[in-house]
Structures are given as C-alpha cells and as structure tokens.
Write a structure and sequence with these properties.
This protein is mainly β. Helix content is 10%, strand content 38%. A hairpin with a 2-residue loop joins strand 5 and strand 6. Keywords: Stress response.
C-alpha cells in the first residue's frame, strides 16, 4: 500500500474543476504533473414557461448565428443544438482572459403528449431562441357535470 501525502489545495482544485464542469466554465486539469487548459461543454441557459395555450422555451444563444442552430423533434424529445464559434486569431490581438465557452452544444427536453407537434414554431431574435409549443385541444381542461343516479 502506497502512502500519499494529503494536499488540501489539490483537493480544492479538484472540487473547483468539478463545479466548473457542472456550470459549463473553463477548468484546469493536470496530466502527468503538467497543467493544461480544458474547456467544458457549453450549455445555454433556458427558461420554460406555460400558459393555457402553449409552452414557451427561451434559450439564450449569444453570438450564435441563426444558421448554426438546429431544432429537431424525435420520439417526443425536442433537441436544440448548434455551435458558438471562437473568434479568429488576429496577429496584433492578444487575449488576456477567455471565460466564455465556445463550441458545440445540445439541450434536449421531453415534450408532453398533449403538445401539438405539427404547430411548433421557432423565432430567433437578439441571441434568444423562442420555441412555441402549442397545446392540442385534448389537453385543455373541460368541466363536465356528472349526475348522480
């Protein structure tokens, strides 16, 4: 059995890296004693709201071109995928810090059975994707009177 010296700072770094991966932030990882920079997958923020007539999904996609976003619905799962591309390197430009994540992303959501899949609409404006998922007529609550015999 090998004894390993406890290093509280190493534990803090590892915990910080795990949290960074969860929140989609860049993290540092050590490989063979050398520190390397790795970028976690990017996950855009999403709000989901509901009215009597529809569900609305708003996804923040800053600096993502409309043509780089793909929305699919397959077997009751709605997926939003795309890519935020990194700026091209310029010879006279020096970056001091890069905290925003770049690259591919995918968000998937299970669509309730009572959504009218044929009427789903998407709008994209100012870096925000709006997905309208209208409810079908069978989903709207109905009141019926039951007579006691």
């Amino acid at each position: 059995m090998n004894l390993v010296r406890w290093d509280p700072f190493r534990e803090l770094e590892e915990m910080s890296d795990r949290l960074n991966r969860v929140f989609g932030r860049p993290s540092t990882a050590k490989s063979d004693g050398k520190e390397t920079m790795t970028v976690a997958d990017w996950t855009p923020s999403v709000d989901i709201s509901e009215t009597d007539g529809e569900y609305l999904i708003k996804a923040e996609l800053p600096e993502v071109k409309k043509d780089d976003v793909k929305i699919t619905l397959e077997e009751g799962v709605l997926s939003i995928q795309g890519e935020r591309k990194h700026e091209k390197e310029e010879k006279n430009k020096k970056f001091h810090r890069i905290e925003r994540a770049y690259g591919r992303f995918v968000r998937s959501f299970v669509v309730p059975d009572y959504v009218d899949e044929s009427k789903i609409k998407a709008e994209y404006q100012d870096g925000v994707l709006h997905l309208h998922l209208p409810k079908s007529d069978k989903a709207k609550p109905r009141a019926i009177e039951v007579k006691v015999a």
